[in-house]
Amino acid sequence: MSRIYLRRTPQGFEPADQPSLETAQKYKIGQIYRAEVVKPRSYQHHKLCMALLSLTFENLPERYAMTYPTFDTFRYAVAKEAGHCEAFIDLQGEIVTVPKSISYDAVPDDVEFGRIMASMMTICANILHMEQPMLEMEVARYADQHYGRAAA
Fold first, then answer.
1. Where are the alpha helices (DSSP H) in the chain?
2. How do the domains of the chain map onto residue ranges?
3. Dihedral, CA of residue 52, residue 53, residue 57 and residue 58, to nearest 10
4. How many Cβ atoms sit within 10 Å of the Cβ of residue 108?
């Protein structure tokens, strides 16, 4: 099963971004496919979050780059630092804290996602030694270039 993001136009639905277009092109024309249409949390807001994390990861100072060799390990560390995590006791009795997902299904509430995003912005600004307003401008520019027009 594939997940694609669609934009409603007067002509019907069209892929909302390049990855969705590439996925949609894999389906044969004329075939019938089942779909569940759901309005996601905020696609623009999510793009900005992914742009923030990607831009920061691509510009990590050396001390962080050595610690986080992959985007996913970095993303998990930022989520945990932002408090978007849960703790449990493992079978050895140790307290383990793991980051939660920032997917649409995991955080359907825009208010909660906004809190997480604001915290991540502060963390990334500190990592990059940038003023937050400057980082916000760079993130918007990065999102425009890599994901399409970003949210204001």
1. 18-24, 43-58, 62-67, 71-81, 110-128, 132-147
2. 1-37, 43-147
3. -40
4. 12
Mapped onto helix, strand or coil, the DSSP state of residue 43 is helix
Handedness of CA 90, 94, 99, 105 (dihedral sign): positive
Q: In angstroms, rounded to a whole number, what is the distance separating the alpha carbons of residues 85 and 79?
A: 7
Give bridge partners of residue 9 from the DSSP assignment.
Answer: 12
Residues 115, 140, 152, 20: is their CA dihedral positive or negative?
Answer: negative
Gap between the Cα atoms of 2 and 55, Å rounded: 26
Residue 84, H or E segment: none
pTM: 0.69
pLDDT along the chain (152 residues), means of 10: 84 90 91 79 84 97 94 96 96 96 80 91 97 96 82 44
pLDDT for the residue 151 = 45
Report the C-alpha gap between 115 and 27 in whole angstroms: 37
